[in-house]
Amino acid sequence: MKVAPINITGAKMNKSKLIASLAFTAALGAAGAASAADLAARPYTKAPYIDPIFNWAGFYVGGHVGGAWTNEQWINTANTTPFGDLSPGQGFRQRGSGFFGGGQIGYNWQASNYVFGLEGTLSGLGNRGTVLNNLFGAGLDDRFSWRTDWMATITGRAGYAVNNNLFYVKGGYAGVNNRLSVTDVLPPAIGSGSQTQWHNGWTVGAGWEYGITQNWIVGLEYDYAAFERKSYQLAGNAPGTYTFDSKPRDIQSAVVRLSYKFGAPLVARY
């Protein structure tokens, strides 16, 4: 019985081929992993620039301070008192100026660069004056005094915004508290009387505001207001009537404003 010889050389060659195949497969796997890693990596891109836009929309409160000028007029319409010195058709006009300051509250809506709003104000005035009636002969001593001390407005606003700057106009209702009084202290006839009334009217104005931050706003504003005529009875306790048509013909004011705007999100433009 013959035994077939073992081919040791062939076995060694097959083993070498197997090892080479395994090495080649491993190399292909490593190369594939490296390629996948390269494909997964994303290049760095710089974030786009954000151009912030000031947002004027929202609710705001604030204060204003400045000066005001009043033209006061009163014309006699009836006089049957012993002490009254004026006759119907006679009267006075005087201009007075003083402090003007108070608070404002409002809300703005913004559409692109256009801003619309509603605003209410309440202001105190220091406008007053005194006139001594010495125009109609000796011994005539009616001393007239007047003052306008409170003013309220409810207005609409419309403006154009250039980022932090807002240029606007306004107009609407205005009302003012007005007082007129007279005294005569020289005999033989003496007397005095006074009356305070609220005058309704209208106002227009214009202004500029600047947003220091998204919440704090400063500004300048000019306003003109005119009011209705009302009848004042200044006879006091004396018999008869001493009646005047009186009104603040106009009130002009110029103020510096400071407001705080609530809920002011940043609007971004890319």
Plain-language structure description:
- By secondary structure, the chain is mainly beta.
- The chain has a single domain, classed as Porin, CATH 2.40.160.20.
- It is 12% helix and 61% strand.
- It contains one helix and eleven strands; from the N terminus they run αβββββββββββ.
- The protein is elongated.
- Mean pLDDT is 84; it is low at 1-9, 24-28 and 33-37.
Describe what is shown at a glance.
With 270 residues, the chain is mainly β. It has one helix at 8-40; strands spanning 51-53, 58-79, 91-111, 114-132, 143-162, 165-184, 191-211, 216-227, 230-233, 242-261, 267-269.
Describe this protein with a few key phrases:
11 strands, Porin, eight-stranded antiparallel β-barrel, 12% helix, two-stranded antiparallel ribbon, 270 residues, mainly beta
